[in-house]
Specification:
- By secondary structure, the protein is an all-alpha fold.
- It is built from three helices and no strands.
- The chain is elongated, with a radius of gyration of 17 Å.
- The model has no long low-confidence stretch (mean pLDDT 77).
Length: 62
């Protein structure tokens, strides 16, 4: 997937926000400005799922 600049970085412009992706062989262009939101939402969803499934460990007695 490669580097995914945040909306803030894209708006600031410069190398990271505008041109860094042009050097990627698999995704040689800028991505949609709205791409950050669904990625962050999915990460939060996965984190909630893992938190529910993770065993509860007492850090003091571990």
């Amino acid at each position: 997937m490669g580097y995914m600049p945040s909306r803030r970085v894209r708006e600031e412009g410069g190398y990271e926000g505008e041109t860094a992706m042009r050097f990627s062989a698999t995704h040689p262009g800028p991505r949609a400005a709205t791409l950050e939101e669904p990625i962050v939402a999915q990460v939060h969803s996965l984190e909630r799922t893992l938190r529910v499934k993770a065993p509860q460990v007492d850090p003091i007695h571990a």
